[in-house]
Amino acid sequence: MSQATFHVLVTAAHWAPEAQALVQAAGGQIHFMVEPITEDHLIARLLETGAQVLLVRGIKPVSQRVLQAAPALRLVAKNGAGVDGIDLEAARARGVAVAVAPGANARAVAEHAVALMLALARQLPLLDRMVRAGQWAPSTWQGRDFRDATVGIIGYGAIGRGTAQLAAALGARVLVLRPQGQADGFATEPDLHQLLPQVNILSLHCPLTERTRGLIGARELALLPQGSLLINTARGPVVDEAALVEALRSGHLEGAGLDTFDTEPLPATHPLAQLPNALLTPHVAGVTRGASLQVSTITARNIVDHLTGPGAPAQHRMA
What we know:
Elements: E1 6-10, H1 17-25, E2 28-32, H2 39-49, E3 53-56, H3 64-68, E4 75-78, H4 88-94, E5 97-99, H5 106-121, H6 124-132, E6 150-154, H7 158-169, E7 173-177, E8 187-189, H8 192-195, E9 201-204, H9 218-223, E10 228-232, H10 241-250, E11 253-258, E12 278-280, H11 289-308
Parallel strand pairs: 1-2, 1-3, 3-4, 4-5, 6-7, 6-9, 7-8, 9-10, 10-11, 11-12
Helix pairs in contact: 1-11, 5-7
């Protein structure tokens, strides 16, 4: 297929020009979509373009119905590492490969996680609101020292490892949930419920699976010490949102830094949006100039390799 034109449907209105150039140089023609993107919208555009590749940006409904309705489709290329919304079993059944770009934005997400920790530890959102309202901190004001914190890491892949390294560099003690094996010299704890009482900042970096869905619920939040912080740059459903709201309202948690939610975009009326001790960002932890370019470039190479070569590199393929 190296001499033939192939079609790539992007589930967004834009993609990095450098990545587009790589695909176009290999004979690819790129088509874009605009939000909102539904199953019906995907099916219509896949049939209209005859796309051999569906390039998924963000979380989109790449369901069994969508996959079965697109006979020309050969590859679902995720512009990122997560496969939320992609029916992997249906893809395998259809013989459609799924490729990801693992680790490309790990440093960016780790930086964002630590930024959320520092902002909450030093109560920056509260202080910002005070100054904007013409208020000043009283002489009794005292901030919280990050260097005295114990940061618990759940999910020790590239992002979890990077977060641990940054937190340790700033003076925090790091404790990694690790059922077995080492963690680059960091202290480890094999049991989640034994780890939680030992940390006052809990940072989540695990993928969303049936095993991790609802991993942090009311029981787990209660095991954290009074005044702890929760950071979630993983996936929203890893945390029971109702239990989290209650822990923030009661003051058991001093704060939560969240970049991901059960429902995205987060509705303005959502209880989390009403809480002053919740620091919220719109799922952009991994979206920096450098990380975005790296993710897009890897994704473009996955596409070109799969359609014009012997197949995508093993570490990039899911199915």
